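[Q] Does anyone have a clean structure-token version of this?
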Amino acid sequence: MVARPTQRAARAAPWALRFALLPLPMLILAALLRRYALMEVTPLFVVLAIAWALSILALVCGVMAFRSIWIDGTTGLRPALTGVLLAIVALALPAAIVFELVSLPRLSDLSTDGTDPPLFTAAPDTVTMRPLPDARDKTLQAEAYPDIVPRHYSLSPERVFQAIATLVEARGWVVTDQRAPDSDNEVGWIEAEAHTLGFALPVDIVLRVVEDDQGTLVDMRSASRIGAHDLGDNARRIRAFFVDLDAALQGVTETNDGTDADSDTDDPLPPLPVAPPPQP
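[A] Here you go.
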């Protein structure tokens, strides 16, 4: 009989799979624990760092295994490929974070009124004591988010405030302070605490309702408690809220006593401003 030499396996291949099997369960578990307030922010960041470090190790081992398979003819393609694919999935989130860090301005506090933003009263001191945006911050926000502007509705402040309160409750935001507008107070507000979608990081929100000669002006401010870069989260939150508020008040009319009345014609609300095309 002719003895056939046994084919060696790439040493890095099984390690690529071992390292890659840990990050995804860690990320999912951390997100669930944070969502149900069973994990603080600092341990969350530690778990994220470990999970992403393991993903990078899996990716490195996978590349080393591919090199050995290609050059030396070793086996282990399946575990190496599986490990690399799992690592890429786990690293998709930090890759998206890096992209937004580069493409979006370094802002963590957005308001539809940069000159006189709604003030926080119940938020932590780290938020309430923040200085007002300077000229640079205003310029960065205007260039990156030209559609983050006040909204005007031809309705009474009481009616607009009611719609805002309903939307805040529907979103599950925790109201921390509020004052409804009335005959004595032409300015009303709702302050609330929200959380980001992925890892439930805290966000402070305040909506201000001001009566003017033609109806009601609404301003919104959304501020991240953690980090100096919100990765566009606050802008997305403000946009989404105004889209829902527009829909809630679309076609609503009022009688002289302030109660709703049926309207045969649905006069459209002013659309959100469209970002200008980039200059060549």
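[Q] Thanks! Anything notable?
[A] The beta strands are 109-111, 151-153, 174-179, 187-195, 202-212, 215-224, 253-254, 260-261.
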